[in-house]
Amino acid sequence: MPDPADPIPASPTPVGKIFPRNLTARADYQVRGNPAGTRPESGVDNCFPGLELDQRNLDTAFFPGLTVDFHRPTGSQVTAISSGPALDQGLTTADLPLFLWAVCGRTTVDQTEPNAPVFTCTNLEGLDVWRRVHDLLPGRVAVLLGPSPGRFSPGPNAIREDLNALRQEGRSLVRRSTDGVLQTAVLVADRARYLDPNGVIDPEVYRPGELTRSLCAPWQYDFRDCGCYYWAASKPDIATSSDGVHRDLDFLRRDRTDPPQPDQPTNVGRRGRQLGYAQLINNWNMLPVVLNGRENDSLGVPVTPATEPLTPEQVIAELEYLATVEHALCVEYLFAHYSLNAPMRLPEGADNTTARIYSAAEEVFSVAVDEMRHLRWVNEALGALGRPPRLGRATHIHRQLDRPFELKPLTSEQLDWFIEVERPSQEVGTSIDGMYVRLHEALRREPERYPQADRLMHLIKLIIDEGNDHFLRFTAVRTHLTGLSPETYLRPLRDETSEPLEDSMLRLSDENYALVLGTLNSTLMLGDRAAGALIEQARRAMFNFHEVNHALADRGVAPRFTLPVGFAEAATGLPDSEWITRAAAAATSARQAVGVLGEETERAMVLRQQADSQALLTTLLLHQAGPTAPAYDSADTAPDDHDARPDISPVPARPPAVPGTGPTAPGAPLRGPGYTADQPDISPGAHRTPPDDPDVPQDNDR
To answer: Do residues 77 and 86 lie in contact, with contact meaning Cβ atoms separated by under 8 Å?
Structure first.
């Protein structure tokens, strides 16, 4: 520690230097033995417990001579009297405990002295009172004290005089009963300063430990109070019993008997059943280990079966395939979401049946969004391995699962398939989750064979962990729909359209789909150079795609999810900024048609979406997302013609049914149901190619 008599080492003062009065600001040297947190630039102040300094403890001495404890549910209590007006008015420790009943003083600079506010402590907990006290400006303040908790006090009505008038007069007064018991006390003084003349927190006022005494120590305090709705937690809030029968159990419940009590829906009810601070300090080791969401100390650490590790070439091939699987699952989940008879937003006052179907639909949609995020993560892993993006869509899901890609409504059978494909697995190669387990094991065993191995393992682990959540969400969907007939929760979707507006909306859906994929491809190609801007544009395109599809489903029309050429499962053509510009132009044309043919709701929708398209093109121009492709490692993945521009004409996932017409001729404009010879073609230069066109790359079966 430095010599108190000479706290600052002698050194020449530079000419013109501004010398601070704050002593800590002048301490520009390291004191040997002091931790880094003692430096002013390293300390962390916080007005809620958890870090290095609890700011609220400064206000315990806001009034000269009084020590006030704000950490009480019944109000702010005076715990000590040491000097100042309290002693001058004859108050002693025999009068304690006393409580704040009211406070008066200026809190903003524009307040005049006659208009200084009076704050009552009635119906306020101690920390609510502290918030008022903390706002008091330097200058004269008045406090009204009484013998009962301030939360239940009469506040400033306990005295006949006006508290602000007494403050301005500087007049303190004490009233006692005939037997000497204090009834009320008004004390007036200038708000106490925290710092001494040298600019240091006054050691005569704040003793060692007082500024940190309410922090979360020992560790059990934070362990108990931090949860998923407040702060980053090191424990689960809820868990499932070891046998999987009882779900949503409070992890900190005090009663550990069987069968366990379910969790409480409110924080008050929950905390009343939890281990308290003292109990947790003494019995923390009674809490079980939670693995895979289940409470069971006997589970142990999952052991991956011994298998031959994948080679780097096999890891790349597996990632390229899994990228197409994530895309396919995302689309299957989205179509299932639109098949549910639920609105895009739940209206107020919705009946129970509508609310249940909506809840099921939201669960399915949230999983679809996660799959799109998985598609991005898998491609980021491929990028770390020096490979180009792979945004194609699988036609089959292989390995232990062997099922073709299909757009189906969310029947009971389809839901069973979703639950099965998302079922968690700690076994190598079983289910989608097991495929990622095998990849993670290969990276873990031989990290030296992979660039950025740590980042790759992190990305793969994120996907594995979210897979378990998907399994639980689809299981929750089954719960939401239990007891409802398919006729109730499913809406009939038809492939045929009945009017030109629906044709244009289908085309807009397809063009928005192309924009989503093209924008995601561009941001993956640019990497860090895009600074996240294009990801935001991809999210907007995804929302627009979702909005149009919902509007189609509301009309009873099934979205087509027409896959653009260049995005087939094994396609190698990479769209560039020119491709996206053409796709945006096609989307603009479709929006214009929808705006002309639609009503006010459709016009408002396309107007919003047009602004997003303009923002996308501006962002592309800003980041110069040109036709720059990474170097390819093998000849079979290199584009044959780097100057070729892939056609944005889509390959339908399901060919649009056009009653009374034959297949669409190559190069012909899209003509959906309701088309007549007099109807103008509103797709400028764009054309749709039938799936059997030999000149168009088709989806390959891996």
So the answer is: no
